Amino acid sequence: MSGAEEPVTPSPRPPWDLRPSQPFPALPPRRRRMSNRAAVLLGLFTGAVLVVLVPVGLFALVILLRLVNVPPEPDGPPLVLPYSRLQGTWQDEEGGRIVLAADGTFTATTICGDYSDDVTGDSSGFGLPATMTGTGTWESDVYTEPDRVTGLFTEFAPGHVSGQLTARGTAESPLLWTFVGDPDSGGLCVLKKADARP
Q1: Would residue 84 be called left, alpha or beta, if left means φ above 0 and alpha means ψ between -120 and 50 degrees?
Q2: In a 3-state reduction of DSSP, which class is residue 185?
Q3: Cα–Cα distance measured from residue 4 to residue 173, given in angstroms and rounded to the nearest whole number
Q4: What is the mean pLDDT of residues 67-94?
Q5: Strands 127-128 and 131-143
Q6: pTM of the predicted model, to two decimals?
Q7: Is 112 helix (H, G, I), strand (E, B) or coil?
Q8: What's the pLDDT tens digit per position in 128-165?
Q9: E-assigned strands of the chain?
Q10: What does 30-84 look like in DSSP terms, one character per residue?
Q11: What is the rounded CA–CA span in Å between residue 113 and residue 165?
């Protein structure tokens, strides 16, 4: 028999001993819960930020959409046309015509434009059509800001529906034009001189 000691084996536990054989692992430290006051302050701060940022973001989006959706102006720079060059027949893309006479009167047949009614307050795209037929008077003026450009003003008889166009292009190929209704709607009225001459 050797002198080495044999390992001692633990005696089996009786079935009524319900203690765990291994100790329970240590619980992690408990996180500190946010106090009610801190939670309320955080909620108020978040709400205030949203109240400021949401309207600002929506406003910026509206401005951006307006810039993107505004239709381009016709080709050519702003143009100054003398009174004599405005006289004659102008025609739109749909065949509407306006004849500007030397005596300051005109005759129009389904001519496009951005018209307004001084009596009712209606305008083209908002209760008033974008084409007009009739007679009336016209005059012109030259704006100096931001560019020198000729403006044409028409007033239909009996005198409460009026329109305005602006000259653009070149002396050889002049145009009269305006947005129709809200510029965001994309409507343009462009008139070309039917009897243009160099």
Answers
A1: alpha
A2: helix
A3: 120
A4: 84
A5: unpaired
A6: 0.62
A7: strand
A8: 999 999 999 999 999 887 889 999 999 999 878 999 99
A9: 88-91, 97-100, 105-112, 115-117, 123-124, 127-128, 131-143, 149-156, 161-169, 174-179, 188-193
A10: PPPPPPHHHHHHHHHHHHHHHHHHHHHHHHHHHHHHHHHHSPPPPSS-B----HH
A11: 8
